[in-house]
Amino acid sequence: xxxxxxxxxxKTAPVEIRERVAFTPETLPQAFSELTATNGVHEVAILSxxxxxxxxxxxxxxxxxxxxxxxxxFHNLKLADVEPYFYTHPDRHAVRHILRVASGLDxxxxxxxxxxxxxxxxxxxxxxxxxxxxxxxxxxxxxFSVAKQVRTDTAIGASPVSVAFAAVSLSRQIFTDLSKxxxxxxxxxxxxxxxxxxxxxxxxxxxxxxxxxxERAHNLAQEFGxxxxxxxxxxDHLHEADMVISSTASQLPILGKGAVESALKKRKHRPMFxxxxxxxxxxxxxxGELDDVYLYTVDDLQEIIQEGLRSRQEAAQQAEEIIDTxxxxxxxxxxxxxxxxxxxxxxxxIEAMREQVLQNALAQLQRGHPPEQAMQxxxxxxxxxxxxxxxxxxxxxxYDGRTELLLAARELFNLKHTDH
Length: 420
What we know:
3 domains; six-stranded parallel β-sheet; four-stranded antiparallel β-sheet
């Protein structure tokens, strides 16, 4: 059986194509059923995210043509329309690909951790559907272990490479224990959502979300255990915030120097950390002139992001070395499966010989033969049966000049050369 990874991603296909070939939770059961019913397909798992759709399969053959044909039919596309965007990786290349994906090395944002959780969900869904066999089960378990090793042994995810991550990384440098502090997030868009997620994962104590549309603020705050306020309520709550991170589409500043001065007085001049991610800016530049305020703009974060990218690229090189080693380990296990079948067949043939010889010995005892004679006959018959096929094949190998088989036999039977 061949291991196959087939799919498209953000590098090979535009979003218009990725949208058309995405799988939803509702379509996955039908997909599993149809694909495993396809001739030559034995095991299947499907990973579908906004940036990639990939199928991991155990198949007969090597080119995966039947999988590509099914894929295009399932999504009501002509194969010619989608095939230019496909990549197909067999066996060793498939193992390398899935390890790189799970480790964040193939992501749009190098080293991002979300893909590993998505891959675990893909495995869980396929396993529940009964489409994961020995091959894919071992592959996914190996993948999860390697991804964890990459995270542990390298700094692939430690450095900020997004504005949201950079903002939260700065806050962690200023406030070593975020659980004792309150964050005020202004806005409810994608960037602020990422900031909220990073802060929540970092254990921030309290989270306040302010937005022009309170309902959107409420939905975001509720997801991360915070509470929502309207933009007009910011002056009443600003003094509570140890950190303020803002990203709105407002054409005018949300926070002015006067409002921040009032908040500082209420805080008895305890420092405030502020990050203005918005363009145009949400926080007046004059706020940065105030004592006890540390104000950063999106331009300030770019230096942190560039340094983070350099750090992750160095870590990625280390991760590739880990993956090289782990690909070899998995392929060694895969190759050993052939030996397992051979060992099983060999044991069955030996046990059949043993049973036949044992029955002969028991029959002799029932006929009154001395036990010693029956035991000697059992040993003689068993020895002859065990030696017959190997000796016959070795003689033929010598006759045919197959010295490699003779040498393999010496290694297999652990025979030492002796002088005669």
